[in-house]
Description:
The chain contains seven helices and four strands. By secondary structure, it is an alpha/beta fold.
Amino acid sequence: VTTIFNFSKQPEKIAGFTETECKVAIINNDTDTDFVSGFMDYIGKKTELVSVENDRESIQDALFFKKAEYILIIPDGFTDGFMADGYANLEKVAIPDSTSSVYVDMMVESFMSAASLYIEYQPNITLPDLVNMVKSDLSEEVQVTLNDNRTVENLANFSQFFNFAFYTNTIILI
Length: 174
């Protein structure tokens, strides 16, 4: 019986990885500097930027109704503080336990870490140069190829076999 089910089943289609754009809102309370504009441009290339009003109720509604999955608030004086120290706090509000928030956190951290390194080792760097260098560094992507000699049909057959082998063995034991 197991063998019949094993060979009669259609092969399963295995879904591949696809990058999706999560909805991100950026509320800028700082002045519109080259650094903030470049940062927003970098985040906007990998996400879908949406607009949200800068009040608590609008932010909560945007998250509840999934208008935005991640809201990043840039505080007043952010650029000046970051250029002085290489570090400044950003406030985030995200859907709890959301995988997209981890993805956006990684993008924010990558941009800020790269910018911080440039500021530390090139203290006289201008904002436009900083943004261009960081965006250039982060634009590099790696092509990943998985070498896998297993075929989908063989995996589907083994999976089907073990799913029905339990029932066959149970009937034999009874």
